[in-house]
Structure formats: structure tokens, C-alpha cells
């Protein structure tokens, strides 16, 4: 079954909607300067209230980008994070120093040809997967750590999936196109933030539709 991550959660109500709709993960942003950023106090309160709510509980991921590993480890402990998503240029060695499970974001540059991108990403995916980490593929936008809400050339992802590399697909996904993404790309999971918002605020109907459409999609044979 396709895994679903709803990212950029700021309110308990939105986390509960995602949980009740069947999300596997929710993401809380800790990256300075990003519009959905939470501090440790707010993130910790949200995570603890969600886990104490008595309903289904997705795993809670904290998003970081090129921040000191000591800060990441402190947030894991202070906020009760289940895992972290690293959105910058963190190395495999950096990931080993994180005291928790890791999703490493690898960015796909549109400036590269499909063959070059696939070759480059194959080596990087293998390195992080060998070290025991999950991987997310997202579009590269220079100077923007974390999600951009922009898609990349899915043919790159299709080829990587065909070669047996599991990953979460991110970038420009919405309730309207996630079914096609699952059908065409066949990722291990999908990740969305701005695609389930209306005027910059999480939209309960879009969250539910995104998860429903992702789960109902049938991967291509």
C-alpha cells in the first residue's frame, strides 16, 4: 500500500484530519525562515496532543535543513519526534549522527538530462539506503531548502522505481494529480504540503482527497 506523508502541519486539528484519513506520516517544519516553521515548544505540544488523542497516530517527522546535528537531536528528544527529514546537503555521515530514523531528501535538477539525473541519483539513493535511511525525491530550486511545491521530470522517478529503488515522491503533488503520479511513477510513498492548502492554510477536504486518491490509484503494470 502506498505510504502518504502530509507535511507542513501547524495545527492539531490538521494533524488529526490527516491521522483520521489514514496518513502514515505528518511533517513539522523546523527550518528557519520557512513559512510553516514551528518552535520546539509548539511542535512538542502538537505531537504529544496528537499521540494522546486516542485515535490513529501517524509517525511524526521533523524537517531540518543543514542545521547543527545537536539541534536536530535536541528536537527529537524535546518534541518526541519519530523520525527526521533532512532537506539540505546532509551527508551520510551526518545522518549517522542523528539519534533517530532519517528520511533524506534528494533534489532532482531539471538542468540535467534524464540519463545523467538517473545515474547521479542512483548512486546517492544507494548510499543512503545502504545506511538504513528512507529517501524522498523533490525538485531542486537553488537557495530554497525543503519543499518547493514544484514538480520535476517524473520520467527520472519512473526509471529509478523501475530499477527497484524505493522513495517518496514530492514536488507539485495535489489531490488532482496524485493518482496519476502513483499510477505512472510507482513510488513507495508520496509527500505533500502546499498541494493540500487553500490560501496557505491546510484544507481538510484536500487532505482527505489527497490520501483517498493516492490509495485508490492502481500502479501501472
Strand order of the largest sheet: 1-2-3-4-5-6-7-8
Radius of gyration: 16 Å
Strand residues, percent = 15-25%
Mean pLDDT: 94
Q: Characterize the biggest β-sheet.
A: 8 strands, parallel, barrel
Order of helices and strands: EHEHEHEHEHEHEHEEEH
Structure notes:
- This protein is of the alpha/beta class and 221 residues long.
- The chain has eight helices and ten strands.
- The protein has helices at 12-21, 40-51, 69-79, 92-96, 114-130, 154-162, 178-185, 204-216; strands at 3-6, 25-29, 59-64, 83-86, 101-108, 134-139, 168-169, 189-192, 197-198, 201-202.
- It has an eight-stranded parallel β-barrel, surrounded by five helices.
- Strand 6 (134-139), helix 6 (154-162) and strand 7 form a beta-alpha-beta unit.
- Helix 1 (12-21) runs parallel beside helix 8 and helix 5 (114-130) packs across helix 6 (154-162).
- The longest helix has 17 residues, at 114-130.
- The protein is globular.
- The model has no long low-confidence stretch (mean pLDDT 94).
Summary of the model, kept short:
This protein is of the alpha/beta class and 221 residues long.
Which descriptors would you attach to this protein?
221 residues, eight-stranded parallel beta barrel, two-stranded antiparallel sheet, alpha/beta
Summarize the helices and strands and which ones pair or pack.
Blueprint: E1 3-6, H1 12-21, E2 25-29, H2 40-51, E3 59-64, H3 69-79, E4 83-86, H4 92-96, E5 101-108, H5 114-130, E6 134-139, H6 154-162, E7 168-169, H7 178-185, E8 189-192, E9 197-198, E10 201-202, H8 204-216
Parallel strand pairs: 1-2, 1-8, 2-3, 3-4, 4-5, 5-6, 6-7, 7-8
Antiparallel strand pairs: 9-10
Helix pairs in contact: 1-8, 5-6, 7-8
